[in-house]
Specification:
14 helices, alpha/beta, 49% helix, eight-stranded mixed beta sheet, 297 residues
C-alpha cells in the first residue's frame, strides 16, 4: 500500500508540474528608447544572451517598423518573417530563427502593424499561433523602434513592463522623458525601468539615473526603476562592427559584467512579482489591438 501511495503521489506531482508548464505565460518585456542610436537593439541582444545564460529561454521579436536591425547585428539573414505568418504561408514556429547562445528571434518589422488589417477570424487564427510562443520562451523581449511615434506608443502601452534605454546625451535623455510622459498620459499601469548606456563613468550614470527618477516622480507622479548602466567600451564598438554580441566576444569586459548585473536585477524577486500582471504574448497582442482599434493617439 505504501508503494502504491507513493506511486500515486509521484504521478500527481508530475501532473501538477505539467499543468504548471502548460499554464505558464511568457514574461513580455518591451525594450524601447526615445531616440535612435542609443544602443537599444544591442542591449536587447546582449541582455537576451545574459538571460539565456542564467537558464531562461529567450525569444526576441524585432518590432522596429522601418529598420529591423537584429538580423544585421547578428550577421544572420532570416528566411522568413512575420509577414509570412500574416499571409498564412508559414506558422509562427517556421519564422523563428536561431541566434547565438541559444536565443531565438523573429524578424517582425511592420508585420506586427499589419495585424490591424486582419478580419476577426484571421486575427483569432494568428493569435492562436502566437500563444505557442509561451511554450517556447520564458521571456520575450520586444525590440521596438525609437521615438514617440504613434506606433511606438501603442506597443509600449500594450506592455506592463518596459525597459527604456538612454545615453548621457541631453537629447537622448529629453526624448526618453518625453516617451515616458506620453505613455503615462494614456496608461498609468506601464512600469518603466531605466538603463543608461555609454556613460563615461559610474558617477555620470548614477547622476543621470537619479535625476531621471527624481524628475519623473515630481512631475509625472510615477516611479521609475533604475535597472542599471553600461559604461562606454571600445570593445562594444569593435564587436558591433564584427556583427558579434560583445557579451560573447568579450565576456570578461566591464560592459559584459554590467550587462549581467542588469539581467540579474531584471530577474530578481522584487521584479519577478510584476510579471504576474502579464497574460503572455496573447495578452500583449490583445492589449495592442485594443489600442489600435479603440484609441486614437
Amino acid at each position: 500500500m505504501d508503494q502504491a501511495e507513493k506511486l500515486r503521489q509521484i504521478v500527481q506531482d508530475l501532473k501538477q508540474k505539467r499543468n504548471a508548464r502548460e499554464t505558464r505565460k511568457a514574461r513580455i518585456i518591451t525594450v524601447t528608447s526615445g531616440k535612435g542610436g542609443v544602443g537599444k537593439t544591442s542591449f536587447s541582444i546582449n541582455c537576451g544572451i545574459a538571460l539565456n545564460n542564467m537558464g531562461y529561454r529567450v525569444l526576441i521579436i524585432d518590432a522596429d517598423f522601418g529598420l529591423a536591425n537584429i538580423d544585421v547585428m547578428l550577421g544572420i539573414i532570416p528566411e522568413y518573417s512575420l509577414f509570412h505568418v500574416i499571409d498564412g504561408k508559414k506558422s509562427i514556429e517556421d519564422v523563428i530563427t536561431d541566434g547565438p547562445c541559444g536565443i531565438k528571434f523573429i524578424s517582425g518589422g511592420s508585420g506586427i502593424w499589419e495585424l490591424i488589417n486582419l478580419s476577426s477570424h484571421e486575427l483569432e487564427t494568428i493569435i492562436r499561433q502566437f500563444e505557442g510562443l509561451d511554450n517556447i520562451a520564458d521571456i520575450i523581449l520586444i525590440d521596438t523602434g525609437a521615438g514617440v511615434s504613434e506606433k511606438i506608443l501603442r506597443m509600449v502601452l500594450a506592455s506592463n513592463e518596459v525597459i527604456i534605454v538612454t545615453t548621457p546625451e541631453p537629447t537622448a535623455i529629453t526624448d526618453a522623458y518625453a516617451l515616458v510622459k506620453s505613455s503615462l498620459a494614456m496608461n498609468r499601469n506601464v512600469a518603466f525601468r531605466l538603463v543608461v548606456n555609454r556613460a563615461e563613468n559610474r558617477q555620470e550614470a548614477k547622476i543621470i539615473m537619479d535625476n531621471f527618477v527624481r524628475v519623473s516622480a515630481k512631475f509625472l507622479n510615477t516611479k521609475i526603476d533604475p535597472l542599471g548602466y553600461i559604461l562606454y567600451d571600445d570593445l562594444i564598438v569593435k564587436s558591433t562592427k564584427q556583427q558579434k554580441p560583445f557579451i560573447i566576444e568579450h565576456p570578461k569586459s566591464h560592459a559584459a559584467k554590467q550587462l549581467n548585473d542588469i539581467a540579474y536585477v531584471l530577474t530578481s524577486t522584487s521584479f519577478e512579482s510584476n510579471s504576474s500582471k502579464h497574460s503572455g504574448i496573447k495578452g500583449y497582442i490583445f492589449h495592442m489591438m485594443n489600442f489600435l482599434r479603440t484609441r486614437k493617439i
